[in-house]
Amino acid sequence: MRELILDDPISIVILKAVIIFVICLVSTIMAVWAERRIVARMQMRLGPNRVGKFGVLQGLADGVKLALKEDLIPAAADKIVFIIAPIISATTCFMAFAVIPVTGPVTLFGHKTVMQMTDIPVGVLYVLAIASVGVYGIVLAGWSSGSTYPLLGGLRSSAQVISYEVAMGLSLVSVFIYSGSMSTSDIVAAQNKWWYAVVLFPSFVIYAISMVGETNRAPFDLAEAEGELVGGFHTEYSSLKFALFFLAEYVNIVGVSALATTLFLGGYHAPPGLGFTESWLGGWFTAIWFFAKVAAFFFLFVWLRGTLPRMRYDQFMQFGWKVLIPVSLFWILVVATLRLLSQQGTSRTGLLIFSGIVVAIVMFVNVAFDNAKQKKKNTPRPTLSKPDFAVPELPSKGSDRV
Q1: DSSP-based three-state secondary structure for 112
Q2: Minimal CA–CA distance to 217: which of 253, 165, 255?
Q3: How many CA atoms lie within 13 A of 329 on its CB side?
Q4: Dihedrals φ, ψ of 111, to 5°?
Q5: Pairwise CA distance, residues 66 & 68, whole Å
Q6: Based on the number of CB atoms within 10 Å of its own CB, is 354 exposed (0-12), middle (13-18) or buried (19 or more)?
Q7: Residue 184 and residue 100: Cα distance in Å, rounded?
Q8: Helix 201-214 crosses helix 239-264 at what angle (to 10 degrees)?
Q9: How far is Cα of residue 65 from the mean position of the Cα atoms in its chain?
Q10: Where are the alpha helices (DSSP H) in 46-100?
């Protein structure tokens, strides 16, 4: 793979960049339409059905509407930072696709290559670094607006994204241990027998939860809780600047779904038993498998939005720091130990004994946690003594009615 990418002329590299950019834009338009239609079906509604066949052009109509709206900048805003913030959010989410392998070897205008911009030894770390830079767009948008509510929304959102990036990064460590590489193409190649969603199922679950929190999606859209913070960090934005934040959100969803597909679902490889389809259409059929898996993850995002209520902010942060991160650290120790034992030629009996010890520890911690929770629930609340100072009496019911 790496040799094919290094042989790409500059024209092929530019063409790949244009193709990825167009795919991201079109997928955003289709994602908006699909989400509204799926949620409407879940809630026994129709959804958009006027603009185009089955309302398929509704996302394009919304984009045109946003572009034609008046572009307002608050008087108290820092105008330069106010303009730069949405650009940062929009550009970083596109850059993450540079290391995602979309297809196997294909022929593009007579040149044999793969649909991947570049393949670096630390490709996954590059994606995480780019996602971290995207936080600056959120923070600067909230601060530069010169308003209280966007500032609070920016603080909430940045704290949320940073917290769940820690859990997301830890969930990927076991993938690095098992594959022996941080290159996305090497990780895909290492899943030729078993997908890591099966072998490393706890890591897959932790990543799936973290990617929903990372993208500020329901039930974790606490930065945009309408009853508390209006629109969150982009409350003061309108027209194309708001459209850039809207675009960044959906491209980020596609991005984390593409990364999950690459790391846990075998990337562009076909499901087990269907490997013969990878040679169809000169290898381009692998792109269909890739985007089918991405679409499955997107459906998961929509399903969660239409099903689960929004969590409280303290519950959400507590779940990230006190549950996901400790579980990720424990799972890393388990995977590292199992990997070491298997490489040293430990017998299957030894591996089963170690697995039994791990299960016993998990059950013990679970029982201890349930007992502590029950004990806390049964603990009587302290009774407050009557104060020594004078306390005015509350008016009785109906005394203030006319």
Answers
A1: strand
A2: 253
A3: 7
A4: -115, 125
A5: 5
A6: middle
A7: 7
A8: 180
A9: 27
A10: 58-68, 79-95
Dihedral angle sign, alpha carbons of residues 22, 24, 25, 27: positive
- The closest alpha carbon to 211, from 261, 245, 177, 173, belongs to 261
Q: Would the pLDDT of 294 be above 90?
A: yes
pLDDT > 70 in the chain, percent:
95
How far is Cα 247 from Cα 240, in angstroms, rounded to an integer? 10
* DSSP letter, residue 238: -
Cβ 329 vs Cβ 59: under 8 Å: no
Q: Residue 213: what residue type?
A: G
Task: Convert the pLDDT of each residue in 113-159 to its tens digit.
Answer: 888 888 888 889 999 888 888 888 888 988 898 888 888 888 888 88
**Closest to 163 in 3D by CA, of 187, 132, 139, 191:** 132
Residue 193, CA distances (Å) to 198, 258, 359, 395 in order: 11, 20, 26, 74
Residues shown for the chain? 402
Q: Which residue has 């540079």 as its token pair? A: 98
Tokens (6 digits) for 206: 């932790």
- Provide the token pair at 312: 């409280």
Phi, psi angle pair for 76, to nearest 5°: -90, 5
For 271, left (φ over 0), alpha (ψ -120 to 50), or beta?
beta
- Cα–Cα distance, 330 to 337 (Å, whole number): 11
CA distance 173 to 401: 65
Nearest to 241 by CA among 168, 341, 137: 137
Q: How far is CA 117 from the centre of its chain?
A: 22
d(CA 277, CA 289): 9
Contact 293, 265 (CB under 8 A): yes
Helix (H, G, I), strand (E, B) or coil at 4: helix
- DSSP-assigned letter for residue 311: P
Sign of CA dihedral 229, 232, 236, 240: negative
Closest CA to 174 of 71, 264, 103, 301: 264
Angle between helix 148-179 and 239-264 (nearest 10): 20
Work out whether the CA dihedral 208, 213, 215, 218 comes out positive or negative.
Answer: positive
> pTM value?
0.86
> SS3 of 152, please?
helix
Mean pLDDT of the chain: 85
